[in-house]
Design brief:
Two copies of one chain form a homodimer.
Chain A: H1 4-7, H2 10-20, H3 36-43, H4 49-58, E1 59-62, E2 65-69, E3 75-78, H5 84-90, H6 97-100, E4 111-112, E5 118-126, H7 128-135, H8 140-159, E6 165-172, E7 177-186, E8 188-193, H9 197-201, H10 204-207, E9 219-225, E10 228-229, E11 237-238, E12 248-253, H11 264-293, H12 297-324, H13 327-347, H14 355-376, H15 392-407, H16 423-431, H17 438-456, H18 461-467, H19 472-482, H20 488-504, H21 508-515, H22 517-550, E13 563-568, E14 572-574, E15 577-579, E16 582-584, H23 585-591, H24 602-606, E17 616-621, E18 633-635, E19 640-648, E20 666-670, H25 671-681, H26 685-690
Parallel strand pairs in A: 11-19
Antiparallel strand pairs in A: 1-2, 1-5, 2-3, 3-9, 4-8, 5-7, 6-7, 8-9, 9-10, 12-13, 12-18, 14-15, 16-17, 17-20, 18-19, 19-20
Helix pairs in contact in A: 2-13, 7-8, 8-22, 11-12, 11-14, 11-17, 14-17, 14-22, 15-20, 15-21, 17-18, 17-19
Chain lengths: ~700, ~700
């Protein structure tokens, strides 16, 4: 009820206030431009630069997720869904940790997550001038290549071949700034604890992106160095006391991608072309996988992790489609743009062309090229799903073939993902030991081939190149059956053998990838020349215009790099989203029907009598988060960790395009619930003690 | 190339000309308001009222399809896809007519299509005044009920219980006119010929909605009366001569539904809410069925017909989404509306409210209620898919339960589909002997339950009512396993036993349907009161305004009733759609790869040497058609049949919302190709002779 009086005026206020610059609580801020004074004023807190530094050095990027260090010996809390693939990789149908939980009795029983690494951001340096100089006077693909090459050079100069560091040139404000981020990198990450999956996913896809919520979506990993737990003197203090409504909180993590700085024309392309295609083909895959999972226990086991991931992405997409077709929200976006354009026009009278017009002119090319690019290459940075290839085996083969072809060139001339500075990460993924389920691989590859044929049409020369005279069913079966790439030793040998080994290989998947390079690379070149380069150039102008109009009190779109947001613990009271700030174990017992996904995990249920029903499980906060923020430590003014962000609501998905204070709610699993689970359910007191708990 | 010079100016011309009234070639005209003079002038033909009467009496409505009588003994040509369900119902996995074709040697071998009937439109009478009077002074659900009751009364008065007639009050111009259509009804329809399915579906879903096309999508049924072939002295003369580009043609059939008279606000609701939901859930079902079809030969056999139907609907929806997000096309629609509103405002200065504003005000309710209505009841008349229930067994149970409940009331108080005048049709569908595949039924019902839960959310009371504490998987399995409704005798007994039998039944599907009546009927009442009634009232005002602004040279939206359209045989030359007017057998042999769906049907392939490669298979015409026009006879000035309409192109799908002369192309299988198939492939010379062929 707290918000209801504010609500009546909200549309008008939003349309006006948000048009200028970031409002209270808004913004996924970089650590080197965090509005300390404003946050302190808004929240009544007193944080300072030293606080920021400690929080940054306690924050961890873990794959596509975020995490926080919670002990001096490398212990890190993240979400259970962030370790789900690790758990699946470590499990077999017989020993299925998703069912049992993973609760190693001693530290020595912690097991390495295949292919995982974790990073802590240690340094930020400005490289804007150097990057902008590299692209000067260029356009089209030359522009893109020159920029990519310069980024690779900067990264290589700064990190060289140091396996314990990673350097990354980060594009901020869509080209308004470039920063060199340096990370301390941990390549040995071990699973320290995961609950029963159902304890973390109670309510499954149905409760996903909603609140009230009753999920203990937390897990622990441990950073290792030289085969020993990493020493991490800087870390978050564990605070498992009962959370209090209204408490100011900060969320520190790596939100994946927002598109708030896009123009209206760009958003219409996403609404009309990008999301419909992505969602429709994801929905079909979902149907195929659901049916597959019903064919038997093995199939159910194999399909579980892919279905969860797919449904999460899909539901997020549904939320985004709703946002882009919400008249009130889009009116707010239009008003913001009108304000910005007006300020820009006033300051630039007589200018030949403005960046909005330029970007509008690029949209027909985006609409034309999105389908081939998304389907054949992926990596458009626009959609919700990454489709290309469909299967893991295909992706490995592509990495091997492209890696070999690219490494035969000087670093600056390569596709950027194969620049010298990035090879270490490529290898980590490629060499990891992971289970491969051929039937699932075949389903995914067949789906990809058939959807590509459908969307590009059967007479498209690229489709003819992909399929020849074979069918999606036949081709995918032949390649998946014939390939040896499931064996990491085979992958390693092919990688180390370079182009000669690749070209001599009789592996059908390798041969297939070799055979489709011309078509797929051409699609990418076309995209870079006609979409990426002109978009980036215009976006850079737009960024400059934004700084001119609003000063530096603006934050960049999320880019999968570390950000800090702030807000309060609070519920929500807008139409379609009314809830208090907290849920408790009592609520969990109430909601449980016994039928999946509303069945309580067996060990958790068995501990019912030991658990105080009033203990808070999850809470809602107003901080500005998005996919990628999963696992983000939620921190109070004292720098203590209160929980881990793990979700938001369906309505909150609009925050891909704009922040709406009344609607935006992130969902947090509390340290209290985690302590309860560790201590009262899973016999993991040793972790509670390690964190300095009771 | 013919069209290219016109094309440059097309956008402007369209926006202007189409804003006024129907342009040359545009319009699915009713037979009692066909613009004879204008068509003759545009085409250089000389048709008259007698010609129209003959064409009408030679035209057949066959389920959701159209057809044409082609002999004096009740022989009727339609599309093969219009008899696909009949073929599937008559087939078993062992004797699969979709594989072999159905080519009975003698007339006595023709087999009855279960549950099928066919109708010829014999009379049209105006009942506008009576219908409008019935709704006078009423609003909300009372308005809807009074109208429905009056229609039922009119129908019953005119047709009584005559089993050889059907009477239907047709709403035209969205309430601008009401006409009583009287049909001669044939309840005994037999399959006379169907080719191998692949001969009719060469290219499958990939070539569907496209041209060039190489499909002999034709089949024959025969009308029977008193167990003998019907005498049909009025029929189309068979003309199998080579078609000539530019020839004027008329297409006579029953196009299903267009939405051209909708306002911009209504179209935005379809774009934002209706199509996305329909398409996304259809796509998931498609995935489930595709995977099911891959599990074995039985599953492939069972799933074939449902997949074809689903993919057809889905692809049409994709075309419609493209239309509603096509800036140029939507600008044309906006210009039309602006012109209309301006004329209306000029003539109605000072009026309190206009129908556009009223309809805009209804849209929030449509957006809110579309999902529950479409999922729980179906029949919104807005979307592409009919979802409710998912399964055939469920639908039968609903008909039985509702039929019993409704028949206990006077006809005028019933749900309109159970009015006395409509019970005969209900029974025909209910008593038909059809194969039921339990696994498929279960998949569809599970999908429906799980999608309903997803879209309405798990906490929606209606969802709780649907599922109780069961899961979609468990509930659907329990009901499908337990029900006896697959047996037509059981259905007949329950129907004839009335409400007492229904309430006493221990059939779990019947019990389930009884248990969910409150929730589902409430959704429907809500829809009728808050959406249907205000929409119908405002649409009626809009229709009156349209007649006032543009005279009677406007045609009504398609309503699944008989219409006549006109145009020419011609190709297309717009971006994304360039082709000549004809395809030949030579082209078919060229396009065949051997891999499904590009494999030539075996018997057709075996006849290759007997077939003149230059024989035209399919042709494109500019006539204005839409789904439901399938099977429509294509007729020349002399009243001879030249082919059967079976498809259009993806771009043509915009014609749901507006006619675009440059883009709109219908796809026709020619009488020449059909003659070749009958004579040279399937040994059906007797039909060729019956039609007076060579």
């Amino acid at each position: 009820m707290r918000l209801s009086s504010a609500l009546a005026a909200s549309a008008a206020v939003l349309a006006f206030a948000a048009a200028s610059s970031a409002r209270a609580d808004e913004g996924m801020w970089t650590f080197d431009n965090f509005p300390i004074a404003r946050a302190n004023q808004a929240l009544g807190t007193n944080i300072d630069q030293a606080w920021l530094d400690r929080v940054r050095l306690s924050s961890v990027k873990f794959g596509g997720c975020s995490a926080g260090i919670v002990s001096g010996e490398g212990l890190v809390m993240t979400n259970n869904h962030c370790v789900a693939t690790c758990v699946a990789n470590l499990s077999t149908q017989a020993i299925n940790y998703a069912e049992t939980g993973f609760a190693p009795r001693t530290r020595e029983d912690e097991v390495k997550c295949p292919g995982s690494s974790a990073e802590v951001l240690t340094d930020i340096a400005d490289v804007t001038e150097r990057m902008q100089r590299a692209g000067q006077g260029l356009s089209g693909q030359a522009f893109t290549q020159a920029r990519d090459a310069e980024a690779g050079r900067i990264e290589q100069e700064a990190c060289g071949g140091d396996p314990n560091k990673r350097c990354q040139v980060v594009t901020l404000y869509r080209g308004g700034q470039f920063k060199l981020y340096t990370y301390k990198k941990y390549s040995d990450v071990r699973l320290a604890f995961a609950p029963e999956d159902r304890a973390a996913t109670f309510g499954g896809d149905l409760d996903n992106f909603s609140f009230p919520r009753f999920a203990i979506d937390a897990a622990f990993i441990r950073l290792y160095e030289n085969d020993a737990p990493a020493q991490t003197p800087i870390h978050f203090k564990w605070n498992a006391s009962r959370p209090v409504e209204g408490t100011p909180v900060f969320v520190s993590g790596s939100p994946g991608a927002t598109q708030r700085l896009l123009t209206q024309d760009q958003l219409m392309t996403i609404r009309d072309v990008v999301l419909p295609m992505d969602q429709l083909i994801a929905s079909e895959l979902r149907g195929r996988l659901i049916r597959y999972s019903e064919e038997g226990e093995r199939q159910a086991f194999e399909a579980m992790d892919p279905i969860v991931g797919l449904e999460n992405t899909y539901k997020r997409g549904v939320g985004r489609m709703r946002a882009l077709t919400d008249a009130q929200f889009m009116a707010m976006k239009a008003a913001q743009e009108a304000d910005f354009r007006q300020r820009h026009a006033a300051a630039n009278a007589g200018a030949a062309n403005d960046p909005w017009t330029t970007l509008a002119g690029v949209q027909p090319a985006v609409r034309e090229l999105y389908a081939p690019m998304a389907l054949l290459e992926g990596g458009t940075g626009m959609g919700t799903t990454s489709v290309a290839g469909g299967s893991q085996l295909f992706n490995w083969a592509r990495t091997l073939v492209r890696g070999a072809q690219e490494r035969a060139k000087p670093s600056a001339e390569r596709l950027p993902e194969y620049a010298d500075s990035r090879l270490a990460s490529v290898q980590t993924g490629l060499f990891a030991e992971r289970p491969v389920y051929p039937e699932l691989e075949q389903i995914r590859m067949e789906w990809w081939l058939s959807k590509t044929r459908e969307w590009l049409t059967v007479d498209d020369p690229r489709v003819r190149g992909l399929l020849g005279r074979e069918s999606p069913e036949g081709l995918s079966a032949r390649l998946v059956e014939g390939t040896k790439l499931a064996d990491p030793a085979v992958r390693r040998a092919l990688w180390e053998g370079g182009l000669a080994a690749i070209e001599a290989s009789d592996d059908p998947m390798i041969q297939y990838l070799l055979s489709i390079q011309d078509e797929t690379r051409a699609v990418r070149s076309d995209w870079e020349a006609r979409v990426e380069a002109p978009t980036n150039r215009a976006s850079e102008q737009l960024a400059a215009a934004r700084f001119a109009a609003y000063g530096d009190a603006v934050y960049p779109d999320a880019t999968g790099t570390l950000r800090l947001t702030y807000g309060r613990i609070e519920g929500s009271d807008v139409p379609g989203q009314r809830f208090g700030a907290f849920t408790t174990f009592a609520g969990l017992w109430d909601r449980a029907t016994g039928a999946a996904p509303f069945d309580v995990a067996p060990k958790l249920l068995a501990a019912k009598d030991r658990i105080d029903p009033d203990t808070v499980i999850d809470m809602a906060v107003s901080s500005d988060t998005i996919g990628g923020s999963s696992g983000s430590p939620v921190v109070n003014e004292a720098g203590e960790i209160l929980g881990a962000n793990f979700d938001s609501t369906v309505l909150t998905q609009r925050n891909a395009y704009g922040y709406d204070r009344n609607v935006n709610r992130s969902v947090i699993v509390t340290t209290g619930a985690v302590t309860t689970a560790l201590r009262d359910v899973y016999g993991m007191e040793r972790l509670v003690e390690e964190m300095g708990g009771e």
